[in-house]
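Hi R.,

As promised, here are both runs. First protein below:
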Amino acid sequence: MSTTLGNLLRLARAGLVFSRYGVRLVPKGMKVPLVLRLASLATWPISAISAPFRAGERQDERISSAFAALGPSYIKLGQFLATRADVIGPEVAADLSRLQDKLPPFSMAEARKAVEESLGGKLEDHFVSFGPPIAAASIAQVHKATVRDKDGSLRDVAVKILRPGVERRFKRDLDSYYLVARAVERFHPPSRRLRPVAVVDNLRRTTELEMDLRLEAAAISEMADNIKQDEKADQLLFRVPEVDWRHTSRRVLTLEWIDGIPISDRKRLLAAGHDLEQLGLVVLRAFLRHAMRDGFFHGDMHHGNLLIDKAGTVVAVDFGIMGRLGMKERRFLAEILFGLITRDYRRAAAMHLEAGYVPPHHSVEVFAQAMRAIGEPIHGRTADEISMADLLGQLFAYTEVFDMQTRPELILLQKSMVIVEGVARSLDPKLNLWTAAEPIARTWIEDNYGLPGRLRDAGENAELMGKVLVHLPRVLEQAENAAQAFAGMAQNGLRLDDESIRRLAAEEAAQGRSGRWALWLTAVALVGIALALLG
C-alpha cells in the first residue's frame, strides 16, 4: 500500500507542475469525466496564480518546460506520447513532438566513478584522454575520449554513460503510469480500445532496452551486418559506427568517433559540396529498406542522430530505440505503401483487416472507401504538399469509426516514418515521398510474392512439415493421455482434498479483502490522474 501512496504522491506532484505551466493533456472535444472536472477545479488556483508568469509563452514551450521540470522519465513519456495522436489528439501530439531530450550534464567525478565501476580499475587504465561531456540527455551523456589500440596507435572514441540512479527513477515513475493506465481501462470503457496498459508496457520495454548499453551495442552490430549487402553503386550511402567492445558494458558504451556535419546544418553541407537532394533520398530509402527488408530499423532517426562524413555517407548514431517488424508487419507496410501509391485502395483496406487494425465485422469495401478519401487528395497535389504525417493523421481520424485497435508493434514504425519524413523534407522540400518509396515497396513485394519468394516459402513450409512429423508421435501420446484423464474425471468426478479446499477458501477471502482495498485506492487514484492530466 505504501507503493500505491507513493505513486499517488508522484502523480499529484506531476499534476501540480502541469497546472503551474497551464498544460492540458486531454484532447479538445473529449468528454471529461466528472471526477476529472472536479479535480481540475481543485487545481484552478495554482493555474490562475501562475498565469501572469507564463504570458507570451506558446503552448509547446509550456509543455516542454513542464515535462523537463518533472525529470528524465517524464521527458521520455512526453516523447512517447508525441507518437500517440490517437490518444492525446493531433494538436497536443504536435506540441510534444518539439520536446527536446536535453538535461544538464552530471559531473566528471560521477562519470569517472561510473566508468571505473563498470569497466574495473581506474579510468586511465582504459582511456588515454577523457574529455568533458559534449551532450547530455535524460538517460545518458556522451564524452569524447581517446584509446590506445594494440598496435600503439591512438584512436578517438565516443563514450556514452548512463545517468546515476536513472534505472531506479524510471521504475518508480513507470509504476505510477501503470496505476493511471489500469484505472483508465477500468473506469473509462471508451478508452479501452486505445489499450493504455499496452501503451505503458511498450514504454517500459523501450526504456529497459535503452538502459542496457550492451543491447545498444548489439543493435549497432546487427544493423552493420544487415547493411553489408548494400553496395555503393546503389547510392545507398548509409553506415553505422563501429563498436569498441573492449570498453563497453551495461552502463558504458564506447563507439567510433564520427567526424561529420550534422544533417541539420544545411549551410555547412552545401559548403562541403554535398548533394542535399540525394541525402534526403538516402535517408528515406535507407529507413524503408531497413524496415521492410530487414525488419529492424532505427527508431529515432531525427536530425540530431544523423551526421554526414567527408565521403558524403549518412552515419546514424544513438541506437537506444530500435524497432522490429515480423513478416506480417513488413507485408502490411509494403502493401499499404504500394496500395496508396498505385491507388489500389481495396488492397490497402484488406491489409488493415488482415493485420488486425480493423475488426473483421467491418466491410473491406467500406474501409476501402475511407482509404480512397485519404489517398485521392495525395494524387491531386504537388510533391511538396504530400505528407506522411498528414496521411497518418487522417488514418487516426478513422480509428473510432472503424473500431481500430492499437497495434503496439506498429506504433514505433508510424512515429519513425513521420520523423524520417521531416528529415528528408528538410533536405529536399520537393522530395516526392511516394515516388521515392515506390521502388522499395515494389522490390519487397516482388521478392516475397514473386518466384524467389514462393520458392523460399515452399522450402520453409517443407521444413516446418518435417518438424511436425518428427514430433507427431509424442504429440499423439500426450493427447491420448489427456483424453484418458478427462474420461476418468467424467466418470468419477473432480475431487479435491481437504487441504486444497481450505487453500481455495483462504484465497477467495483474501481476494475479497484486496478487491475492496483496490476499489478505494483506485477512487483516490482518479484524483491523482486528474492532476496529472488536467491543468
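And here is the second one, sequence first, then its C-alpha cells:
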Amino acid sequence: MPDGKRRSMRRDISRFAHGQYDCLVIGGGINGAAIAHMAALNGLKVALLEKDDFASGTSSKTTKLIHGGLRYLETFELDLVIEALRERFYLLRDAPHLVRPLSFIIPVYKTDARSWWLVRLGVWLYDQFAGRYAIGRHRLLGANVLQQLMPGLKAEGLRGGILYYDAQMDDARLVLENVLSAEALGAHVANYVEVKSFLKKDGLVTGVIACDTIGGKEFELYARTVVCAVGPWTNGVMLKEQESALPQCQTSLGRRPLRPLVRTTKGAHVVCQGQISNHALIIPTSRDQRVLFVIPWMGNSLVGTTDTDYTADPDRVATDQEDIDYLFQELRRVFPGAADGMFKKEKIIATFAGLRPLAYQPGVSAKVSRQHLIRESDSGIVYVVGGKYTTYRKIAQDCLKKIMPSRSLVDTRNGFPVFGSGKIGESVQGTAEQYGLGIATIQYLMDFYGTRYKDVLALVRANPTLKEPLCTCSPAIKAQAVYAIQSEMAITQDDLIKRRLSLVHRYCHRGQCRREIDRLVHSMRHGL
C-alpha cells in the first residue's frame, strides 16, 4: 500500500471521459469498494462509480458488527460460520483502527425458546469453529453477576448468561478506506456518478453511459469487464441491462419479466441516548426466532435489528414507527425498569434502516442463506449479490477469480490492509505536545484514522485555528471536516455528518457541529 504523503483527492470527473478500463465496478458499498481495491492491487486499470456517496446505502446502515454469525449455526450453515470467523480475524489484523474486539452477553431465561443447554452448546461450537482465529474463550455467568454487568435486566426467570467475543466496526469508514486504498493503487473513483445505461457491441456490454449528478454532464466509459455490486439495487440494474439490449420499439411495447436476483429485507436500527453496559447484549425475541442486539456505540446504545421483506424503492427505505415499536417492546420485556428511561421516543438520537441484498430464495427471511453469489449475465455483466459484511475480502477475491480465471491473484490472506492500517510509532503525549492539542484529542484521531492521523494534523500545522473542536458533542475538530472535503471526496453536509465523522450517532442539543460544518463547506466551495 503506498504510504507516502497524501495528495489532495478532490472529485475529478474529467479523468473518466472516454476512458478505457480493464474493470468497471458499479456500486460504492463495501463489496464494490473491496472489489475495486483488490482489482487495483492485482494490476488492473479500474474505475469505480457510485450514484450517491460511498457507503450511503446499506453499507453504512448495519449493526456495526464483524462476526461469524452465531445464529447461522441453527440453519447449519457451518461453512459460512467458519469462513466468517476466519475473515473476522483478518479484519482485526488488517484494519485495527476500524475493527475491534467486543464482548457479547446472552441472558437466558427459563421461558426462552432456546434452552440453556442449547445456547451453551452453540457458543461452545462457535469457539471450536474459530479455533486459532478465536478472540477469546466464552465463559458462563451467574444471574447475580449478569445483573451487575447489565443494570436493569429483568431478574424473574433469569437462569444466567454466557459471555463470548466477536468484533465491532465503523462500517462507513471501512468502505471509505477501501475506496481510498483503490485510489492510492491507481484506480479512478467517484461518488455521485450514476450509470444511466449500458453500451453494447454484438450483444456484449462494452461500457456505460454515466451521469455526473453534481455537474449534470453525461459521458461514456468503456471497460473490458463490468462488475455490478449495487446490493439492493441489483434488480433495477438488471432491468437497465435488459432495456439496453432491446430495440426502442420493444422497450415501449413491453419486455419479458425478469426473475429477481436479489431478495431485499429491511433491517431497522435505533440509536438511544445513554449506554447500558460496555458489553453488547443479545436478546432472543419473543415473536420469532430472531435476536436483537444492544451495542455500545459512541457512548450511546445502538439497537437492532428487524428482518422484514421490502419490495418498494430501495432509495426510500427508512425506519418507521412500527419498527421502533417492535424494537422497544422487545427491549422493555427484558428491561422493564427502562420503559420510562432509555427506550422511549425522547431518547432517540438517530434511526436508520438498510436493505440486506440476499441472493434470491423463498421462505422465511431470517432463514435465507447469507452466502454470496457471483453470476455472469448473457451480456457479460458480473453481478455480485448476497454475502455478509464480514466476508467482503472473500467476496472480492471470488469476484476477481471470476473475471481473471487464468491469472494468479495476490494472496490477500496474508494481508489486505486498508488506508490507515499499520502500526503507529509515535507516542500520544509527544504528538499532543508537538501540535498543541490535548492527549484525548490525539488518541481519538489515532483511533479514528490509524496511521493517517498525521494527514489531519498537517492541516492543523498549516492553520492552527483548525485545531478547534467542531462542537461539544464529540471530540472531532475542524481539521477533520476540511480533510474530509479535501482528501475523502465529501461533497455534502450529510457526507461529513453521517459517513466521514459519524456525528449523526452522537447526542447534540446545540446543533453547533452542523452549523460549523455548513460554514466550512460553504467557505471551501467559494474559496473563502
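A quick note on the second one: The chain has 15 helices and 18 strands. Let me know what you think.

Best,
J.
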